[in-house]
UniProtKB/TrEMBL annotation:
Interacts with PCNA homotrimer; this interaction is enhanced during the S-phase of the cell cycle. Interacts with nucleolar proteins NCL, UBTF and NPM1. Interacts with XRCC5-XRCC6 heterodimer. This is DNA oxidative demethylase ALKBH2. Residues 153-258 form the Fe2OG dioxygenase domain. It comes from the Eukaryota. GO terms for molecular function: broad specificity oxidative DNA demethylase activity; cytosine C-5 DNA demethylase activity; ferrous iron binding. Residues 15-31 have a biased composition (Basic and acidic residues).
Length: 262
């Protein structure tokens, strides 16, 4: 379990209820008052009531071996500001670091990428090893908002910038060994809304092999998608080309990387 200062720990308990409530929609969205009276001092209670007066409406997305939670984390104005701030702050990889290796051949990535996080953290996939740059103020702000909404802490973010609907991401799973399996991947989307497609590992290949049907969703401006275990074991995901989409999009996948592999 994550370590929190007091207020965050209390909030985590409540938000856990919210997430849970998304899948059992008959439960009340409000925190039961007796619980607040029992557990919190007056000042904290006021703070919590204020904070939770507009609980985030989470949507549960479930299929066989797929478990995700989706919500609109930022209002449009806030999301616009965050997008513009990231456009000013972020530096993307160029040259060899903007390429991946597949079966010994080098390919340019059809989007721009950057990695930020705690000092010294490195993330490796498709033959590239990306060292995290120091968090920027806007990334820290978004990371902390995601932590407050989910109760999970993150030490790394992979940024993908899609200049338009031609930029895309191929089907993959985020199942690298260095990812902490107890921590979901938290995906924040800003800018153009884009389709996001999950495909079960038994439904890939020409004939589809009769696994469960794909799960498609649109990731909206200001949205948060939590990919919980075991989603990334059973399902691949992709961001397909959408030729009609002309606006840019930035996606941030917050992750927890294990510092030492066992
Ligand atoms: O841009 C997206 O929504 C997909 C990002 C993703 O799958 C990843 O960073 O691993
Ligand atoms: Fe991914």
């Amino acid at each position: 379990m994550d370590r929190f200062v007091t207020a965050s720990r209390k909030r985590k308990r409540h938000v856990g209820g919210e997430l849970d409530q998304a899948s059992h929609s008959k439960k009340s969205r409000e925190a039961p008052e007796e619980e607040l009276e029992e557990d919190y001092g007056e000042e904290e209670e006021d703070m919590l009531l204020k904070e939770f007066s507009q609980p985030i409406p989470w949507r549960k997305i479930e299929a066989e071996g797929l478990d995700c939670d989706y919500c609109l984390l930022f209002k449009t104005d806030e999301a616009n500001e965050l997008f513009n701030a990231l456009e000013r702050e972020l530096e993307y990889f160029t040259g060899d670091q903007a390429k991946v290796q597949v079966f010994g051949k080098s390919y340019s990535v059809p989007r721009k990428q950057a990695t930020y996080g705690d000092e010294g953290l490195m993330y490796s996939f498709s033959g590239v090893h990306l060292l995290a740059r120091t968090w920027t103020p806007t990334l820290e702000n978004i990371r902390d908002t995601v932590t407050k909404a989910t109760g999970h802490t993150f030490n790394f973010v992979l940024v993908n910038r899609y200049k338009d609907g031609l930029d895309h991401m191929g089907e993959h799973r985020d199942d690298e060994r260095e990812l902490d399996p107890s921590c979901p991947i938290a995906s924040v989307s800003l800018g153009a809304a884009r389709d996001f497609v999950f495909r079960h590992r038994n439904s890939r290949g020409g004939a589809g092999r009769g696994g469960p049907p794909p799960v498609k969703l649109e990731l909206a401006h200001g949205s948060l998608l939590l990919m919980n275990a075991p989603t990334n074991t059973n399902w691949y995901h992709s961001l397909p080309v959408r030729k009609k989409s002309q606006m840019p999009r930035i996606n941030l996948t917050f992750r927890r990387i294990l510092k030492k592999l066992k």
